[in-house]
Write a structure and sequence with these properties.
two-stranded antiparallel sheet, 2 domains, 6-stranded mixed sheet
C-alpha cells in the first residue's frame, strides 16, 4: 500500500474502495497541535492506514465503511518511556453536504444522537477523508497513556525511572506538615 497525501475522492467516482497509508508527518500534524497531546513524540515508524469502501446514498450523501489501523508512539505520562499504540477500529461514517452537517454545540449532559456521531461534510463534488482519518487518529491516543498500569513513574528528586532502578531518595515532606513529624505518640 502506498503512502498518500491526498484523501479526496470525487462523488461521481462512487462506489469506490480507498486504501491509503499516511506516514509520520500526517500523525504528527494530527496530534501535534492538540494541547492535551503535547507528550506525543512521533517516530519515523508511525503511520495510520485506512481501507474503506465509499458508497453513494441518494444523490448527495455517501457512507464509508471499512477499517482503520496504525502504529503511534507516545510517551508514558508517568515515566516518559516510549509506548507504541496499535489502534484498530472499524470505520462507519456518513458524508453530507456541509450545510447539513450537525452543529457541535451540545449542552452538558445532553445525549448525542448516534446518527450524528460520525458525520462529515463534503463540498458537493469531493469527499475529503482527511478530517475523518484525523479524528480517528486523535481518538486512538488515550488522554493519559501509560507504559503499564503499574508504572511507578520517575523520582521527583533525582529523576530516575523507578521502573528501571530504585533510588534512595527520601520522599519529600510538605513543609506545612513538617511539624507533625516531631510529634511523639
Amino acid at each position: 500500500m502506498e503512502t498518500v497525501t491526498n484523501l479526496s475522492v470525487r462523488l461521481t467516482e462512487l462506489p469506490k474502495r480507498v486504501e491509503a497509508r499516511l506516514d509520520m508527518a500526517f500523525v504528527d500534524n494530527a496530534l501535534g497541535d492538540l494541547a492535551l497531546r503535547k507528550n506525543v513524540e512521533v517516530k519515523d515508524s508511525d503511520y495510520v492506514q485506512i481501507a474503506t469502501d465509499l458508497y453513494p446514498v441518494g444523490e448527495i450523501d455517501a457512507v464509508a465503511t471499512g477499517s482503520f489501523r496504525g502504529s503511534v508512539t507516545v510517551s508514558c505520562v508517568r515515566c516518559l518511556a516510549d509506548v507504541t499504540l496499535k489502534p484498530q477500529e472499524k470505520v462507519n461514517a456518513t458524508f453530507v453536504p456541509m450545510s447539513n452537517v450537525p452543529k457541535d454545540e451540545f449542552e452538558e449532559g445532553e445525549d448525542i444522537d448516534p446518527s450524528e456521531a460520525d458525520v462529515f461534510g463534503h463540498d458537493g463534488e469531493n469527499l475529503d477523508l482527511t478530517a475523518m482519518v484525523r479524528e480517528m487518529t486523535v481518538l486512538s491516543v488515550p488522554f493519559a497513556p501509560l507504559c503499564s498500569e503499574d508504572c511507578k513513574g520517575i523520582c521527583a528528586s533525582c529523576g530516575h525511572n523507578k521502573n528501571e532502578t530504585t533510588c534512595t531518595c527520601e520522599p519529600a515532606i510538605d513543609p506545612r506538615l513538617a511539624a507533625l513529624k516531631e510529634i511523639k505518640l
